Task: inverse folding
């Protein structure tokens, strides 16, 4: 299974940032997306569906137990309507963090982009 690495766009406190381009979605079940060294509680995913008639589903995979003691609650699946942008998150480490400290994400289609935004802890 191929894994596409995502990187953070840091949101600077008391400032702004240009809307990131994002990474083209890759589709499950043969491909995953990974956000290494994740900060789930500080992470918001921006998902844009560029298809003209089909919704897509973004799934944030449940983590490994341990460290994700609430992983039994399962994956989080969010439908993104065609032609729209959704912001998903922040996330609970106790449910979504993998044993290597990453977040794993899958998509039902390749028609769109994803960007990982990191919210500052303090301003």
Result:
């Amino acid at each position: 299974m191929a894994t596409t690495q995502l990187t953070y766009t840091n949101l600077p406190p008391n400032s702004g940032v240009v809307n990131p381009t994002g990474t083209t979605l890759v589709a499950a079940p043969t491909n995953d997306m990974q956000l290494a060294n994740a900060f789930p509680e500080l992470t918001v995913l921006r998902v844009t569906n560029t298809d003209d008639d089909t919704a897509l589903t973004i799934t944030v995979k449940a983590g490994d137990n341990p460290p994700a003691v609430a992983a039994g609650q399962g994956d989080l699946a969010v439908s993104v309507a065609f032609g729209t942008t959704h912001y998903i998150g922040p996330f609970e480490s106790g449910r979504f963090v993998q044993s290597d400290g990453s977040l794993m994400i899958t998509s039902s289609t390749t028609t769109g982009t994803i960007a990982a935004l990191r919210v500052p802890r303090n301003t």
